Amino acid sequence: MATISDVARIAGVSKATVSRVLNDTAVVNKETRKRVLQAIKSLNYMPSYLAKGMRSKKTSTFGIIIPDFRNPYYSELLKCIEEEARKHKFIAIICTGEMNAEREREYIHYLLSRQVEGMVLCCYVSILENKTFIQDIAKKVPIIVMDQPSFGIPVSSAYADGYKGFCKLTDYLIEQGHVKIGMIRSLHKYPCSECRFLGYRDTLKKHGIELDPDLVVECEFTAAGGYEAAKRMLSRSKPTAIIGVNDLLAIGAMKYIREKGYNVPGDIAIAGHDNIALSSLVSPQLTTVNIPVEKIAEEAISQLIRKIENPRSWNRDIVIDTQLIIRQSTEPVTKHEILM
Amino acid sequence: MATISDVARIAGVSKATVSRVLNDTAVVNKETRKRVLQAIKSLNYMPSYLAKGMRSKKTSTFGIIIPDFRNPYYSELLKCIEEEARKHKFIAIICTGEMNAEREREYIHYLLSRQVEGMVLCCYVSILENKTFIQDIAKKVPIIVMDQPSFGIPVSSAYADGYKGFCKLTDYLIEQGHVKIGMIRSLHKYPCSECRFLGYRDTLKKHGIELDPDLVVECEFTAAGGYEAAKRMLSRSKPTAIIGVNDLLAIGAMKYIREKGYNVPGDIAIAGHDNIALSSLVSPQLTTVNIPVEKIAEEAISQLIRKIENPRSWNRDIVIDTQLIIRQSTEPVTKHEILM
DNA sequence: TTGAAAGCGCTAACAC
DNA sequence: GTGTTAGCGCTTTCAA
Description:
The first copy, chain A, is of the alpha/beta class. Chain A is built from 14 helices and 12 strands.
């Protein structure tokens, strides 16, 4: 691979001049510039990001940690983040933390030694279990926490308002006449899951409905988890509606319920949260709460870039509003029966 | 951030010795080693991958280009690839080519200037449109092409045998008594899609069934594409079975068909290919062909690593066998009617 | 407007 | 076993 010295030699100039042409960092004589560009072309020269980064401390890279590639919510998030990064000529190194604090820490270290200029963290575990660790990292590199607030750690954050989302969802189901409303939530008390649960709990309370512990079950963050959770819930009680803490769980639950011969929404209405693409592909289509992922990604990345460009700029907590999306899985029973 | 010089100073040794301890590249006196490790700890020192990579030409990084994060097949692939990479202490930089040759080329350049040690390419467009380009890149860095053969380009490849898969699928449907079997394929003639189509075509022929052009429709690689494709197909003809070139398309088609009031599999049987997680979540569950993604990822990465460690080693075309998975969406009608 | 020289943090070759 | 030295490919003073 050709180096800047090769280019300089071919063009009959110094390395410094080539660098100037490359980075537009000083005025270069028109003729000289032309010769340099020709040399670059003829050698098929490409600057080395390693050398560049080492010298200038700018790697145009940031790191991002998500729990799992296979959760469609993160697929959408990654897509949006990549586009945003692209706009700023950044590239993202993506790692999966798998809800494992040690693995998360390991990757964060790894990213740091690769001199990323910023980090996007969807680390439900570390943030809680390792406040001081994250705090130390934040001194070295700008961090934005996704999907949950920053809990007093001096970093920025960007997340959808899950509390409000679950208030809307629960309110809506109660309006439809439901009283025995179950909830499937995550096994561990992750903040984003917890917020959603509180929205559900408080809304029940507001309407004078007592929370029934039999109607709250916990499971892994997968469709299979939702399936098992529904099984457990139905073995204890018989709700007329079930909310999943996210769409994936709701879809898993729906699968179990339909396999058992129950009608959705006739016998049991189901709703989720996140509005992943899948939620409108299943049948009946899933009622859910839309998270404007693009907007979150855009705001998060621009905040991160701002912080990279000016490390002393303020941290921000960016809270994004969500929208209730009513679909077949919670349609009023009468209407549903007509359709059948 | 502390550097190797700081560590050397604190430990009272030379940088070389620190490097030796760090990389286990020579025997170091036990006492000295201890002092070095203490210094590393006390300084919270982390080696810089930039400097390391620059000097040693080893970045422990490879690049991977996929079409889209949102296709679940790639989510699974990425997960497996990350795990394999992890075993070898490599990290992956993931980019999406979006079936766009220019974007693919741009990212490949980008990866190259970041000195990746190898590339995994799921680039349906570039490989075909830019053979010489890929060929040039292959001279600089080991490449493994995924999901399709290497077409004579001197690189390795790893893919599932889509031709055979579609033979099995078509054979099976014909055994079930289907004659009017439609196929939904990709808009562009990507090799992996084309192979699958040929398996379908040849199997029909083998059974003396003539290919009906009205029963072959093309669409984008998304569920929405499959939905539209089914609409078009049904407006022209009435098959008793439809195969999607992948599960996503099949699921989109199924959605349209059920919305139109047809029974699946009663009126129209549906099958896909890939066995994405989603295929067993929809109802009826989708008959499909399993691609052992883990195995492909494992073989691909170990081949890539082999090539990195010994650039003169042979290229290989790794072809992985697939398995027919029969589910509800193609169950014999009689059995289905009993179930209803 | 351009060049020379220093140095980013590390490893590798060679001495001792 | 360990230290010295050179240099990876680039940017950034400082001089001219």
